[in-house]
Specification:
The protein is mainly alpha-helical. It is built from twelve helices and three strands; from the N terminus they run ααααααααααββαβα. The chain folds into two domains: 70-265, no CATH class; 276-356 and 368-402, no CATH class. It is 59% helix and 5% strand.
């Protein structure tokens, strides 16, 4: 048997891969680089990597803004305080709407409301009503959307005990208001019946009826709608209730806006004119007092208003409302331009005819004995008031009939 020597083990030569044979990683890299460098991929990838264009940026920002406002108006993370705030805003706006309507009715026809305490607090109160309306109307809409959006996502939250507790307090306040106006309306009717045939009918009593009926409907509707929200209802009833609630809230908003506009051009304008005329009246009384003090101290008649050292407020208003000073043989005159007519104004006494008859015995117990002019009673426009002087001039002042002795400004501004 021929024995052949075993082949010696020799290592296989290491073959360097050619350009056609590459490792998987290299081949993948090459494939990727080839694809990226291809014209088709470059054309398709260019829009995807173009992050710096203004169009894509603006569209992204607009979508973020719309998403933010949508989320802001349909969801709240502070449901408890916002729901309490919604109840407070609702009862406040209902009260303001009732106040606007009450003031508008008071200034319709005759008699008009009587100005008290110079009219300043009435004018300030009216400005406060208008300012509160402008703030509460948009706040009611925003809170309603946020609360209802949260309740839509979590219906069980409407049955929470704390929610029913705050809603119960709200219902108590609103229902008591409706009850109070109902009692007032019945009282007006009974007093009219009790005075039938004994007293004459009051001209402004119908205003009380309108005010009371409007308040009863307003507070009564609010009580009824929120009372339905207090108890649990099925899905169909809840759907109809939501429609009525929207009608109430948005109807309340619309009524508040309309009444605010009417209020601004009627009540607020009239109260502003009353307030201005009361300022003029006070200024004339102040000038008269200073003239008397000057004559007493100097033993002579005042020749010009400059010698009185009037306040800056009176001096500024004298040019705007035409304050004038005239001397005469027996005294002097003070003139001004008024915006309203109070010569025949009768105050709007909201009491009933029966009350007026029962209280008539207390009228005119202390009649006025003053011989001085009363600037609070005047016509509309330029009015002069005559006063007696401690030291009347021997001859009439030449300015008393032809021109004004107003050392501030002869221009009259209406």
């Amino acid at each position: 048997m021929d024995l052949q020597p075993a082949p010696e083990h020799q290592p296989k030569p290491i073959q360097t891969p050619s350009t056609d044979q590459q490792s998987p990683n290299q081949s993948g890299t090459a494939h990727a680089s080839g694809v990226l460098s291809s014209p088709a991929f470059a054309a398709s990838a260019e829009p995807a990597i173009n992050f710096g264009t203004s169009e894509s940026t603006s569209s992204g920002m607009s979508s973020k803004k719309s998403g933010f406002f949508s989320k802001f108006l349909t969801n709240t993370r502070a449901y408890v305080p916002e729901y309490i705030l919604l109840l407070v805003v609702t009862v406040s706006l209902v009260s303001i709407v009732n106040g606007l309507m009450s003031n508008i009715v008071s200034y319709i026809g005759d008699p008009k409301p009587q100005t008290t305490w110079g009219g300043g607090w009435q004018y300030t109160y009216s400005l406060s009503l208008l300012a509160a309306t402008l703030v509460l109307v948009p706040l009611l809409v925003i809170l309603t959307k946020r609360i209802k959006g949260t309740e839509f996502r979590n219906e069980t939250i409407k049955n929470a005990g704390w929610r029913k507790a705050f809603l119960g307090i709200f219902l108590l306040i609103v229902s008591l208001a409706a009850l109070g106006y109902s009692i007032a309306l019945v009282y007006q009717i009974i007093s009219q019946i009790a005075g039938a045939g004994l007293v004459t009918s009051s001209g402004g009593i119908w205003k009380n009826y309108v005010r009371d009926i409007f308040a009863i409907l307003l507070f009564g509707a609010t009580t009824w709608l929120y009372a339905r929200d207090y108890r649990y209802t099925d899905q169909d009833a809840e759907y109809h209730h939501q429609i009525l609630a929207k009608i109430h809230r948005y109807g309340l908003t619309l009524i508040a806006i309309i009444l605010a506009v009417v209020f601004n051009f009627t009540v607020l304008s009239a109260q502003r004119n009353d307030f201005i005329d009361n300022l003029i009246t006070n200024d004339l009384n102040s000038i008269h007092s200073k003239i008397e003090a000057y004559e007493s101290d100097h033993d002579s008649q005042v020749t010009s208003l400059d010698s009185l050292k009037l306040s800056e407020d009176i001096t500024s208003r004298s040019a705007k409302y035409g304050y004038e000073y005239h001397t005469s043989s027996d005294g002097y005159k003070l003139c001004a331009v008024f915006k309203t007519d109070t010569s025949s104004k009768t105050p709007d006494d909201s009491s009933t005819s029966l009350e007026q008859t029962l209280n008539s015995s207390s009228d005119n117990l202390y009649p006025s004995t003053s011989t001085y002019a009363d600037p609070s009673v005047h016509d509309k426009g330029r009015v002069c008031f005559s006063y007696q002087s401690l030291f009347p001039a021997t001859t009439a002042n030449p300015y008393s009939n032809n021109s004004s002795n107003n050392l501030f400004d002869s221009t009259v501004t209406n």
